Amino acid sequence: MLWIRTRRRRAANLRARAVSLAAVAATALGALTLAPQPAAAAPNYSGDPVQYWNNVLNGAIRTAGGAPGPLSRAAAMMNTAIYDAESSYQLRWHTMTSDPYLKAINYSAGWGVEGPGEEERVIGRTAYNILLKLFPDQTTYLDNKFKERFGTDPTGFDLLDLTVVGTIVKNTQDDRTADGSDDRAVYTPDAKPGAWLPTSYPDLPDPSCSQGSQAASPNWGLVKPWALDSGSQFRPSTPGAYASYENLLASPAYADQVAKVRSLGAAGSTTRTTDQTAAAWFWANDANGTYKPPGQLLDITARVAKDRGLTPYQNARLFALVSVAMADAAIGEWDVKYRTPIDLWRPVSAIREGGLDPAWKPLSGTTPCFPAWASGHSAFGAAWAGIMRQYFKSDNVSFTASTDDPHSPVRTRSFTSFSQAAHEDADSRIWLGVHYPWDASDGYALGDSIATWVFTHKMRAAGS
Predict the structure, then answer these.
(1) Which fold has domain 207-457?
(2) Max CA pair span of the chain
(3) Across the chain, how many H-helices and E-strands are there?
(4) Is the peptide bond before 22 cis (omega within 30 degrees of 0)?
(5) What InterPro entries does the record tag this protein with (predicted)?
(6) Average pLDDT, the chain
(7) pLDDT of 341-380, one tens digit each?
(8) Residue 28 reports pLDDT greater than 50
(9) What residue spans define the domains of the chain?
């Protein structure tokens, strides 16, 4: 009977050992694939994760402020990283249907099964880490937004950080290292009639634009593009194709341009309609504390995508395409502003310094601190509209857009096409008194060309 008791003891020991190993495995699985433990709260995965983190980005933009170029760069870094992270997730568990931006990582899942909330974690942990590098002074805000989504602190261990997120973040950062975005060389104006000069006047004080050295982002046209071959790839020649400031100022075309903005863009204009005034402020978003032109267009993108029920994978590609197009539009646009033969002065300078009306004021009150030609808003709007039109395979899509400019008399405006919104965005700069008509048209043409180039060369859908 002894051998029976011994056999029973061995069986009991084996069962106990199996239970113990199962407990260890379960503990390890939880540590490797679940959100950091112990959880402070249950995850809240309501709404699309790509849209959630773009809303977080817009919050950071409102606080950070600054010129459009660096902000568009931040959007492109976060959204291309999200897209490559989502592409990696699709490669691991589903099917990739479009090219990644840099690279999709064929990562190990550890246990051969998809972890709880894995798509959310891949996207969110990637977005958080990129934003933390871009906005290090907003750590508390970003930590709170992470915890709002996941119910845990972002410092907890997650295997996905080791297998995929860390690699995506590093790839994105390495790709933008030494891209020229940290060039702080100051600008020296051309110092002749027609050339840009600071736009601070005693009756229009602007401490941020009282010296030529304060011109914003003068070397942004030299930043490494995201999709273009160079910032000058689609560069137009000069305003009206005039070869010099002297020829430009002596031309009837220039006189006509100044006359139009003088009439339509004046603070007390009697020719600008009530709706044009509303549109001018709706699209402005120039002041710090707003989500600036790139942020406004990302917000509209989210509204359109939500209306059409896009999946996270579809959203990741759409937001990456829009962000890359806007980032390259900023580079191409600032190449035009500073690296062409004519760095055109703003309308307020043309009208006052040209002796037409020393008391003329633009509707905006202040003017962006960089040359007029061509319009950045126009380029951003056209780049956005071009991507949206090609992504949705139609321009005739109805949607409602929003603004957070504090001067806007309305919070929303509705449109029946992407190009309608983009053209109004471009024209609004004339009604605001900060741009000439050719700034709007040339900026629009530039942004539209960039959108087509981006859509046909980056993150292409399978079979395209």
Answers:
(1) Vanadium-containing Chloroperoxidase; domain 2 (1.10.606)
(2) 117
(3) 16, 2
(4) no
(5) PAP2/HPO (IPR000326), PAP2/HPO_sf (IPR036938), V-haloperoxidase (IPR052559)
(6) 92
(7) 999 999 999 999 999 999 999 999 999 999 999 999 999 9
(8) no
(9) 49-176, 207-457
Crossing angle of helices 68-93 and 312-339, in 10° steps, is 150
Tokens 């937004």 locate to: 145
Measured CA angle at 409 (ends 422, 257), to 5 deg: 50
Residues 6+ away with beta carbon under 8 Å from 339: 221, 222, 231, 232, 235
CB atoms within 10 A of CB 401: 20
User: What is the C-alpha to C-alpha distance for residues 228 and 232, in angstroms, rounded to an integer?
Assistant: 9
- How far is it, in rounded angstroms, from Cα 266 to Cα 354? 16
Question: Terminus-to-terminus CA distance in the chain, angstroms?
Answer: 76
Q: Tell me: pLDDT of 420 over 50.
A: yes
* Tokens 């805000």 sit on residue: 141
Q: Spell 86-119 as b/e; 16+ CB within 10 A means b.
A: bbbbbbbeeebebbbbeebbebebeeeeebebbb
DSSP letter for each residue of 298-362? HHHHHHHHHHTT--HHHHHHHHHHHHHHHHHHHHHHHHHHHHSS--BPPHHHHHHHTTS-TT--B
- The DSSP 8-state label assigned to residue 399 in this structure reads E
Residue count of the chain: 464
C-beta of residue 320 within 8 angstroms of C-beta of residue 459: yes
Is residue 459 left, alpha or beta, with left meaning phi > 0 and alpha meaning psi from -120 to 50?
left
C-alpha triplet 66, 376, 351: angle, nearest 5°? 100
Segment 305-308 long-range contacts (CB within 8 Å, at least 24 positions apart):
305/48, 305/51, 306/48, 306/51, 307/399, 308/392
What confidence tier does 110 reach under pLDDT thresholds 50, 70, 90?
low
227 close to 458: Cβ distance less than 8 angstroms: yes
Task: Please give the residue that has the higher pLDDT: either 361 or 35.
Answer: 361
Q: State how far the Cα of 206 lies from the Cα of 140, in Å rounded to an integer.
A: 32
Is 325 within 8 Å of 240 (Cβ atoms)? no
| Nearest by Cα to 215 from 190, 180, 188 | 188
How far apart CA 123 and CA 298 sit, in angstroms, is 17
Query: Which residue is it, tokens 């849209």?
Result: 51
- Which amino acid is residue 283, in one-letter code? W
